[in-house]
RNA sequence: GCGCCUCUAGCUCAACGGCAGAGCAACGGACUCUUAAUCCGCAGGUUGGGGGUUCGAAUCCCCCGAGGCGCACCA
């Protein structure tokens, strides 16, 4: 077996690449240096020309030209047969061509991997969206944007973890397979455990398990993980997506909103170096403090008359119809107010804006507001018309929680497939005592979309869910 | 889920009721400073799948499949 330093390409490749970089402005065209370097990467272009050959070697850190010459380059004949997409390792001296291009005059080289499949049109590449989505490895190499966004995503994840570790949060992992789907209102995926002969659900949220950890005495926890919702696919929805949830004992929603502001601004600054964003040509600033307004205030402002959860039902219904909504009999005042907000207010928000005090009817896991039992101590952070995060003072009273679950269960009976189910294990845990706690959920994919100014969620997911290709297609 | 649009060579696209074509890639050849190298040659297809109308269908109609856009649902 060859010793490492006898291989034609550098180990690791990246270190030697940097040694090549300093020269480009200093050397004169035609100059040959004594600097010996090794490079490795994938060929983007090959230009054989008789007893010379040029190839553009590409890797994430840049591009370098390989310059092969008959009599200098080993196996010159074979070098000219290299093709776009082949992986090549090469070693030689740094030179400048007569045209002034910094190059490696190849002495030894090796084919590291053969591209048996074409990489599309030399100039235009592959632009068929379907092919690119189904073969993201091709997309990654052909399109810079794809790679940049995935790098950004990784930086966001790292910055989130760092920010939370710095604040004493413990990262935990809770089950993905749930006997009862809970923690959110959404339709779940169902699967089956053979040995237990038991239906299990892919989690729609880690919330209930995380709060059970707080009951157990872990006062600051977070989980950064995949959740699954059996709903439609759209530019903003993938069936599996990444959510950050964190729980902070001895805190209420106001404290948590402050933390959320810090966290979002800190991560944005870590990744982009600034807190301002361009979204659809508009500039907004994620630096705290964010504007705060209650849902009732926002709805009243938008509709030009005072409305809240205590408004007479017919008044709310009429307002809903006025916006083209079709109120269902099962909707209470809280649901009506939420619908008004989502229709008339949310899409118009540039933000960042913290929407406060959601109706208790639509917040089955949030603590009742200290000033109005029909509301909860809850906030949603909205940026560019989309919800980025959702936080609230947690409901810690097991009696109230049982009543909320039962209300949800009734809605489920009435046909609402997204409504929750009574979770006895969770109630059992609450009966042990959950200290005052505030909890936050943040859609990581949405956050990355915002920072990358991406209009489709699939841009920020390496392998978005697609229907399998039809056999005949 | 619903509506509209798209699907032709490996890739990017023409042909729009009358012999399926081009550029790039591939393959063979020429070329010692190229930058989407250039030049010569050669090959490449159940026109997404199935059915129908027609003397004749890539083209018109129907069904199916996948994708895109919009709406709905949400994070």
Which characteristics define this entry?
about 475 residues, eight-stranded mixed beta sheet, five-stranded mixed beta barrel, 13 helices, 18 strands, about 30% helix, about 25% strand, disordered N terminus, RNA-binding
Sequence stretches where pLDDT stays below 50 over 5 or more residues: 1-7, 10-25
User: What is the helix tally?
Assistant: 13
Identify the quaternary structure here. single chain
Shape annotation:
elongated
Strand content: 25-35%
Radius of gyration: 29 Å
In angstroms, what separates the terminal alpha carbons?
46 Å
Q: Profile the largest sheet.
A: 8 strands, mixed
Q: What's the rounded overall pLDDT mean?
A: 85
- Sheet with most strands: strand arrangement: 6-10-11-18-17-16-15-14
Percent helix: 25-40%
- Please state the structural category: alpha+beta
User: How many beta-strand runs?
Assistant: 18
Topology:
Layout (H helix, E strand, L loop, with lengths): L12 H8 L11 E18 L2 E8 L2 E8 L6 H4 L7 E10 L5 E12 L15 H6 L1 H7 L1 H23 L3 E2 L5 E2 L11 E4 L4 E5 L4 H9 L4 E9 L11 E10 L3 H20 L3 E4 L2 E4 L5 E4 H9 L9 H10 L10 H13 L7 E4 L21 E6 L2 E8 L4 H16 L10 H9 L4 E7 H9 L21
Parallel strand pairs: 3-5, 6-10, 14-15
Antiparallel strand pairs: 1-2, 1-4, 2-3, 4-5, 7-9, 8-9, 10-11, 11-18, 12-13, 15-16, 16-17, 17-18
Helix pairs in contact: 4-5, 5-7, 5-13, 6-12, 8-10, 9-10
This protein binds one RNA strand of 75 nucleotides through strand 1, strand 2, strand 3, helix 3 and strand 17.
